[in-house]
Write a structure and sequence with these properties.
Elements lengths: L10 E6 L19 H9 L5 E6 L20 E4 L2 E4 L25 E5 L22 H8 L3 E7 L1 H14 L3 E10 L6 H11 L3 E3 L6
Parallel strand pairs: 1-2, 1-6, 2-5, 6-7, 7-8
Antiparallel strand pairs: 3-4
Length: 212
């Protein structure tokens, strides 16, 4: 954790996948995921600039266990771009599960970035899909807007937040993860692996209380 951080005009908050399917009662519920909604609403008031991401899968997506006969959720298979965790069907386009949590209140968000809509490629990161080649355009958008530092919060800490943070760092942005405004799903030790990966990149992890 770190000392107090002042937020300025070149900072942006990236609120990752605050969707019904990742919250209590959802198809891919992240433990205690709903708890961060109130934290994020409060946190967002410190930022003039906010980007929301939204998982947006077509039916029959490659990442769904149901698309692979004989497989079950949380199995790992090998696809063209490497290992792929299989998930319950979730965040299917234009379904209630894909909608933002009803209590999410960030009306000044300037962009909603949808990801995971390519049927044959999963997408954890808001910057680059899992084939590591297909870019979302978010880095270019942030550069054109003049942003230099990206703060991340959301679901899940050890997947979409982690890979978004790593890619933002790789694209040259200063990166801060607001850890208590995230929740983890922790598949096969992914929570500890995330903390180790962020530390190895010197990506700062702070509490919401540190943000002004």
């Amino acid at each position: 954790m770190t000392d107090h951080i002042a937020i300025g005009p070149k900072d942006v908050l990236l609120a990752v996948d605050i969707q019904n399917d990742f919250c209590a009662g959802g198809a891919l519920s992240v433990p205690r995921g709903h708890e961060i909604v109130t934290v994020l609403n409060r946190l967002s008031r410190s930022f003039a600039h906010v980007v929301l991401t939204q998982d947006w899968h077509p039916e029959g997506h490659l990442s769904f266990a149901s698309s692979h006969p004989g497989r079950k959720p949380y199995d790992t298979i090998t696809v063209s771009y490497g290992p792929q965790v299989l998930w319950p069907d979730h965040c299917v386009q234009d379904t209630p599960g894909a909608a933002f949590h009803a209590e999410l209140a960030i009306p000044h968000a300037e962009l909603v970035l949808r990801k995971g809509y390519h049927r044959a490629i999963d997408s954890y990161s808001a910057f680059r899909e899992n084939d590591r080649k297909t870019k979302t355009g978010l880095a270019g958008y942030l550069r054109e807007r003049g942003f230099e530092r990206v703060f991340l919060a959301g679901l899940a800490f050890d997947f979409c937040v982690r890979y978004s943070a790593e890619d933002a760092h790789g694209d040259g942005f200063a990166v801060v993860v607001i850890e208590d405004a995230c929740r983890a799903i922790d598949v096969g030790g992914s929570l500890e692996a995330t903390r180790e990966s962020l530390a190895a990149r010197n990506i700062r992890r702070v509490s919401a209380e540190a943000i002004d």
